[in-house]
Design a protein that fits this description.
The complex is a heterotrimer of chains A (333), B (332) and C (302).
Chain A lengths: L3 E16 L4 E17 L3 E5 L6 H8 L7 E6 L2 E2 L5 H4 L6 E4 L13 H11 L5 H14 L16 H13 L5 E5 L7 H18 L2 E6 L2 H7 L2 E6 L2 E7 H6 L4 H9 L39 H5 L5 E2 L5 E2 L17
Parallel strand pairs in A: 3-8, 3-9, 6-7, 7-8
Antiparallel strand pairs in A: 1-2, 1-4, 4-5, 9-10, 10-12, 11-12
Chain B lengths: L4 E14 L2 E14 L3 E5 L6 H8 L7 E3 L3 E4 L2 E2 L5 H7 L4 E4 L3 H4 L6 H12 L4 H14 L5 H4 L9 H13 L5 E5 L7 H18 L2 E6 L2 H7 L2 E6 L2 E7 H6 L4 H9 L40 H5 L5 E4 L2 E3 L14
Parallel strand pairs in B: 3-9, 3-10, 7-8, 8-9
Antiparallel strand pairs in B: 1-2, 1-4, 1-5, 5-6, 10-11, 11-13, 12-13
Helix pairs in contact in B: 4-5, 4-7, 5-7, 7-8
Chain C lengths: L18 H10 L2 H18 L1 H4 L38 H37 L1 H16 L2 H11 L4 H10 L3 H14 L3 H9 L3 H37 L11 H9 L7 H28 L6
Helix pairs in contact in C: 1-12, 2-4, 2-12, 4-5, 4-7, 4-8, 4-10, 4-12, 8-10, 9-10, 10-11, 10-12, 11-12
The chains are: A alpha/beta (333), B alpha/beta (332), C mainly alpha (302).
């Protein structure tokens, strides 16, 4: 039995939409709406989904950067859901985050050395000299010349900035890192370098990743298991190869078939989804995907399908996917 | 059979004269686009692909300036045209769609009004006919309930719908050439699939040539007939889409294709064969071939001289002294 | 990737440079601001060196006689007294120099105190939001809605005279602009990922505010404070002109104007000197502020 490092149970995060004279909430954005999953030690678990799917909110809520509305977050058997900022502080040594935007995530007024040293200062690790040694070590590990210690973020390219962010995340030797779209702002030739670095660090430092991304080819390459999100809900969770070879949820099927393939000779049969992603303020009743699903029936509007294990850790939330992976799809007339 | 040549860009140069020095954003680019053909222009940030497209429409702003070359469109040099003549060409003969339709659409006018405006400017029709044509166009690009949508403002629409409206506006005058600059980059993958499908469909129906600019090689594989790969303001490889993906000869194209994570390979969780180093700063360009600091095959010759774009086999142009020989197993 | 292979070549320059050096480089291109900076530098030098530059005169001494006119009171400019003497036969040039000390000190100190109060309130309001924000910003609105001059006059009449009192009174009314500015900046900065990164590290709100937010709000605060110096100099002059500021015999540009107004027709030059001094100083601070605004503009520079 694999040991789970993090467990999320029925997590919800609703953001208020305020309006009126008294700034009262007039509606709720259901960014994350009742999701549950576990992340096992040493693995890369990825959340994929399109904009508004709630994948980034999930990542930040797990780290308690956003306060959850309901549900439980259990980190190594400790329920941290209602931990205060000061109770969280010691735990933050073990849980770090890498951000998407290599420009916004570094304080422009601090030299790189100070940015990477901050976590050590906050957690009072060693004296100044020891801290500086660890900063240099972290810079070397991520492939940054230690001579750049005194330079400012704006002097670096996007890829190098992302390395600085990674160095800051690993300097405390964490166990678990949320990587929130870590390569999507980077050029193709830089993307692969950073992906290699992340995979390399995982091996060297025995890290567990929650990898959040929308690029399915990238996710396929780095992940052990994948959770597919749509409008704040999990549609399917399974092993990477199983997901790509045997997608069961109609949304996963459409999502995978929409990926453009860098090969002009493969002309694939596309499932082109009709319409737009509905607003998370007023998501469809029942199954949130039903408005775009070609197999939707009456039951889909009435009953919310639960995410159930249909065998071998393959979870699907669809009324027409049965135990053992049998599907009973019928096209809408 | 050779199709009729629509656009020929010859040795086009667009330089930006900044306080910190001259940036050669477009540094002698040659492109050929035939009628009803799709030419993919791919490259990473700083390769000059967007500036090149703006240069074709002569829309480059200060401190950017044309620094030479010719843009032969339907037999005439656009660089020799007056601003007045250019205005007539923009939007009617050459139309353009951008990455972020929200900035290209005016937020205070309805979608319908904006498409209609484009029709009224470039076509000899009255308002009633223009409105009819507008609704036809909105319908053609797959906007549901076009009569109602006619009166909607850009902010009331989703990103995908806005991009459809932009395409309706661009296609309303049956342009000979459509320039698509990262038109699907900001969209979600399922919406991107819709828009690509729409563009392919319209391209067949209206018989428009497309200059398809993107950073995403996979999209080029899907859309283009011919591909030009740009790096630091120069075209480094130019050939049919099949050659580019099956037999890439420039080390940059080759490296780029090898570095993208595959959707088929079983070797996941392994190091990707990445291109080392990074894109040079435009203020301190390397001597010789711009790619040599990152190139695994670089020799002294590459460090000293800039290679020419040479035809190494019929229809396959490469800017390299040592084109990659064995390209087996590159496309996955 | 093998250890110790470094990623090179993408830095924008070959040498490292600090933010402020870059700002100064851009400021140098702003001619008016550079002239203003030069003028202000000269001004500060002159008031600091007031004693050696006073030609042996003293701002408090009554001159018994001057050779070029019968009565020394209101004597026009002449040798040894380049700006003439005032109604009490004191040397106007030395009084302008010593008065400049007062005016510039009031300008700088009030601006600094005001900016500090504003930064404090702005950071708290912007970072914590909610009730703190509501209370602080309503208080700010309240302070802004007070007609400043009448209240200052009343206050100055109650606590009369000393330099410290004047500085206190002006400072109390010069923090609101900075508070609003900083709050606005903080609202956008706290949405940026580096603030979130700081939280993810486990930094306390105080540390986030001081290490991450404060330095990033400095640019607009510096511009606003520079412009505020000019305003504060005028406030001081106004209060002193009304006889409620710095009291005789201590010179300030404001009370020199006050003293001179009675003799506007007989000795008009006595009004020009403090007037011109105030004009040049406030103009210079305004030009410098404009130049700094352009040089610090974050949109031009990341």
């Amino acid at each position: 039995m694999k040991k789970s490092i993090l467990e999320v149970k029925n997590l919800k995060k609703y953001f208020p939409v305020v309006g009126g004279v008294f700034s009262k909430p007039i509606a709720w954005v259901k960014a994350v709406d009742d999701i549950s999953f576990s992340i096992f030690e040493g693995e890369t678990f990825s959340l994929v989904g399109e904009s508004g799917s709630g994948k980034t909110t999930t990542g930040k809520t797990i780290l308690k950067l956003i306060k959850p509305t309901a549900g439980q977050i259990i980190a190594e058997d400790i329920d941290i859901t209602n931990f205060s900022a000061s109770e969280m502080r010691p735990l933050r040594r073990d849980m770090q985050i890498i951000f998407q935007d290599p420009y916004g995530s570094l304080n422009p007024r601090l030299p790189v050395g100070e940015i990477i040293r901050e976590p050590l200062v906050v957690h009072r690790v060693g004296n100044k000299k020891e801290q500086e040694e660890r900063v240099v070590e972290a810079m070397q590990v991520v492939g940054l010349r230690p001579g750049y210690l005194h330079r400012y973020p704006h002097e670096f390219s996007g890829g190098q900035r992302q390395r600085i962010g990674i160095a800051r995340a690993i300097v405390l030797n964490p166990k678990f890192i949320v990587a929130d779209e870590p390569v999507s702002a980077l050029d193709a030739s830089i993307q692969s370098q950073v992906l290699n670095l992340l995979m390399d660090l995982q091996q060297k430092l025995s890290l567990t990743y929650l990898f959040i991304a929308h690029n399915l080819a990238v996710v396929r390459h780095v992940s052990d298991r994948i959770g597919v999100m749509y409008l704040g809900k999990l549609m399917e969770i399974t092993d990477t190869m199983e997901l790509f070879n045997n997608p069961l949820h109609p949304y996963t099927q459409a999502l995978l078939s929409a990926i453009p393939i860098p090969d002009p000779e493969i002309k694939k049969e596309r499932i082109i989804l009709a319409g737009d992603i509905p607003s998370p303020i007023n998501p469809p009743s029942g199954c949130v995907f039903r408005t775009r699903c070609i197999y939707a029936q009456d039951i889909c509007a009435e009953k919310t399908p639960q995410l159930v294990d249909i065998g071998n850790g393959h979870f699907t939330a669809c009324h027409f996917v049965k135990k053992g992976g049998k599907t009973e799809f019928t096209k809408k007339s | 059979m050779e199709k009729e040549l629509l656009l020929e860009v010859k040795n086009l140069k667009t330089y930006f004269y900044t306080d910190d020095g001259i940036v050669k954003a477009v540094d002698g680019i040659n492109l050929k686009l035939h009628k009803s053909e799709v030419l993919g222009l791919v490259g990473e940030s700083g390769c000059g692909k967007s500036v090149a497209s703006l240069s074709v429409l002569r829309l480059v702003d200060q401190p950017g300036k044309n620094a030479g070359g010719e843009i032969i469109f339907k037999g005439e040099d656009l660089l020799k045209k007056s601003e007045e003549e250019m205005r007539k060409i923009r939007g009617s003969e050459i139309a353009m769609i951008f990455q972020e339709p929200m900035t290209a659409l005016n937020p205070v006018y309805t979608i319908g009004d904006q498409v209609m405006e484009a029709i009224l400017i470039h076509q000899d029709v009255n308002e009633e006919e223009a409105k009819k044509k507008t609704i036809e166009m909105l319908d053609l690009v797959g906007i549901p309930d076009p009569k109602k949508r006619f009166n909607e403002y850009p902010h009331e629409m989703s990103g995908g719908m806005r991009q459809r409206a932009m395409i309706a506006m661009a296609m309303s005058c049956n342009p000979d050439l459509l320039i698509s600059d990262e038109a699907t980059t900001a969209l979600d993958v399922t919406i991107q699939a819709q828009i690509l499908e729409l563009m392919k469909d319209l391209q067949k129906r209206i018989d428009t040539a497309i200059l398809f600019i993107t950073h995403d090689l996979a999209l080029v594989a899907e859309m283009a007939d011919t591909v030009a790969v740009a790096y630091m303001g120069k075209i480094v490889e130019y050939s049919s889409v099949k050659n580019i993906f099956k037999d890439p000869r420039h080390p940059y194209t080759y490296g780029l294709l090898k570095s993208i994570p595959s959707l088929i390979s079983k070797k996941t969780k392994q190091p990707l064969p990445a291109i080392e180093g990074m894109i040079p700063s435009p203020y301190s360009m390397p001597k010789g071939c711009y790619f040599h600091p990152r190139c695994p095959f670089a020799t002294d010759e590459c460090r000293k001289n800039i290679p020419e774009l040479k035809e190494i086999e019929p229809g396959h142009l490469v800017r390299c002294f040592h084109p990659v020989e064995n390209t087996k197993g590159v496309s996955k | 990737m093998a250890k110790n292979t470094y990623i090179d070549g993408g830095t924008t320059t070959s040498e490292t440079y600090s933010y402020w050096r870059k700002v100064f480089q851009r400021l140098r291109k702003h001619h008016l601001a550079m002239i203003a900076l030069f003028v202000l530098g000269l001004l500060i030098l002159v008031v600091v060196l007031a004693k050696p530059l006073s030609f042996g005169n003293d701002p408090y001494t009554y001159i018994k006689s001057v050779p070029w006119i019968a009565r020394p009171e209101l004597a026009p400019p002449g040798p040894g007294h380049p700006l003439g003497l005032d109604n009490m036969a004191r040397d106007a040039w030395s009084r302008i120099l010593y008065g400049g000390r007062v005016s510039l000190a009031v300008g700088f100190i009030c601006s600094f105190v005001g900016a500090s109060i504003g930064l404090f309130f702005g950071l708290i309001a912007g970072y914590f939001g909610g009730i703190a924000d509501m209370l602080i910003m309503r208080f700010t609105d309240f302070m802004l809605s007070i007609p400043v001059l009448p209240i200052m006059v009343v206050l100055a009449a109650v606590i009369r005279g000393s330099l410290a009192a004047i500085i206190f009174i002006i400072s109390v009314f010069s923090w609101m602009g900075v508070a609003r500015l900083v709050r606005g900046e903080v609202l956008s900065l706290k949405e940026q990922e580096f603030t979130e990164a700081a939280k993810a590290i486990g930094e306390s709100p105080a540390r986030i505010m001081i290490i991450h937010l404060l330095p990033n709000t400095m640019a607009p605060v510096i511009v606003a404070s520079t412009l505020a110096i000019a305003g504060n100099i005028i406030y001081e002059a106004t209060l002193s002109f009304l006889g409620l500021g710095i009291r005789q015999p201590t010179p300030s540009w404001g009370n020199m104007l006050n003293g001179a107004q009675t003799f506007m027709l007989t000795a008009p030059w006595l009004m020009w000197w403090p007037g011109i001094a105030i004009l040049i100083t406030t103009l210079a601070f305004n030009f410098l502020g404009d130049g700094l605004r352009d040089a610090l503009d974050p949109r031009l520079y990341r």
